Amino acid sequence: MTRRRSIRLHIIDTQARQTTHRRASRAFKPALVLSSLLAMLVGCGADTNKGPGAGFKRPPTPVVTEAVAVRDLSDVINAIGNTQANESVTITAKVTDTVSKVHFDDGQLVEAGDVLIELTNAEETALLNEALANRTDAETQLERLSNLYEQRTIPLSQVDEAKARANAARARYNSVVARLDDRLIRAPFSGSLGFRQVSAGTLITPGTAIATLDDISVIKLDFAIPEVYLAQLKLGLNLRAYSSAYTEETFIATIAGIDTRVDPVTRTARARALIDNADHRLKPGMLLTVALSTRPRTALAVSETAIIQRSGRAFVYVVSADDSNQQVAVMRPIVIGTRSDGYAEILSGLSLGERVIIEGTIKVRDGAPVTELAAGDSNAAVSMVEQGQTVKTSEAS
């Protein structure tokens, strides 16, 4: 029994060793295959390096640079403003009557005092003729009695009565003239008329709109800014205004008034600026964007295209020479301030005269070799680099 048991244990031990060996063999085969592949790749690489392309070096990336320079800068306060006419009125009548004649067309330019509308005035004209006749008679009587008084033929009291009658006749005449003038509707100031709202024969009453009259030779621009900038507003200060109707033009306005109150709800202060509008391009009611420049100063600045934003920080690529005197791009952190007219103020990180990359940064890496191009050559070369194409340079082998 003891011998049979020993033989059985020997058989079990042998089977276990065989199983372990098979497992180890299966685990070793993939590793052996991987090692063989790596050896083949290394061999291929070694063979490749021995070929005609051995020692290939990527050519420098062409870029356009700009020197850090001192520029005139200022803080810009932006706001939205509405335009108004320098003078504006709706023409109406003072009396109730029918329109006799219309003396203007839509959009016509008129001068102050020009007659725009004539109302029916037949009755007033008759009364005027009567008043004129009475005034003439009264003045004639006064002159006759004055001559008789000088000859000492009548008393002074008769002359005084004649003067009173002459004055009453003049007053009556002036009253009729005023009533007749009320039927002549005139332009109160020079300007441009709007659309005509009445025609001949229209019955109008006080308050009936006849037309609008606007003096737009000067445009008033009303805008509001936060009260924190109130100290920056001064009478006579110039600002720039932009209109969506004239995208290529800047209008210069001058602050002519500052409101005496600050809105307690919006915490804004209102101001009014004047714009010369001799060509009548700006119209009342237009929406303009206002840019007010304050705190003018000189400071270091670079083009905004040179700035790279990453994780809330600003960087630029500075072109410098490495140990082999090769131009390379070095990424440098900077602190920027005001942005104005395509330039950014440099508070720290750059020095005057250093050259930074403004075009071609998309293919540049920190420490990578670069080649500076003239501004005129940037369109073709830099666009090729941004499209991933190879640009041949004299340094490429």
**Helix/strand class:** alpha+beta
* CATH class assignment of the largest domain: Mainly Alpha
Please state the CA-atom Rg, rounded to the nearest Å: 47 Å
* Domain count: 4
What count of helical segments does DSSP give? 4
CATH topology title of the largest domain = Helix Hairpins
- Shape assignment: rod-shaped
Beta content? 35-45%
- Return the average pLDDT rounded to an integer: 81
CATH superfamily of the largest domain: Helix hairpin bin
- Uncertain spans: 31-54, 380-397
Distance between the termini: 87 Å
User: Secondary-structure element order, as H and E?
Assistant: HEEEEEHHEEEEEEEEEEEEEEH
Beta strands, count: 19
For the biggest β-sheet, the strand order reads 2-9-12-11-10-13
The CATH architecture of the largest domain: Orthogonal Bundle
Question: What share of the residues lie within helices?
Answer: 25-40%
- Largest sheet descriptor: 6 strands, antiparallel, barrel
